[in-house]
Amino acid sequence: MISLKTIFCIIYILLLFPNLALAEKIKAAVLKDENFQQRYQQILGKLSPLEIEEFTPKSDGSHLEIIEMIILQQALHLGWLKEPIIFEPHDMANLGEIAPIVDGTILMFGRSMWLQTSVDYQGSLYISEPVIKYGEFEAGLYYNIANKDLKEKGIDDLSKLKIVANPR
Q1: Looking at the whole model, is its pTM more than 0.90?
Q2: What does DSSP assign to residue 63?
């Protein structure tokens, strides 16, 4: 069964890119200075991105970008795009620079984009209604149960820790 969030993602993508079904090759930009292709292939192994159901890291490091690359392909496939997406390294300092999307140099990023990044471009970009509405996202502290040092810390001790998942 397809979740409501998946349906919203598909609708969003089809509204944003109505001619995707007609395109021969869809390209999504990824950062050039990261080893995305290598890490992407490690996670896929011999599977197609459409076969991935569990995102278990097989190496050290952040895998958020890789997971988003896979979810993007799955969402577009559910929206009837059968062609694979080509992830193309792009010379941008970070994914917060959306000028290449605004000027049409690139079609899309291989990962999600924060609203704060796009709000200044409302006249140049279509910005859908949020898929995850304010207050529907929950953040928490998740750690390995074997980490006794972290397990024994109180709330005051936790507030002294510095953990960064995204600068926004």
Answers
A1: no
A2: -
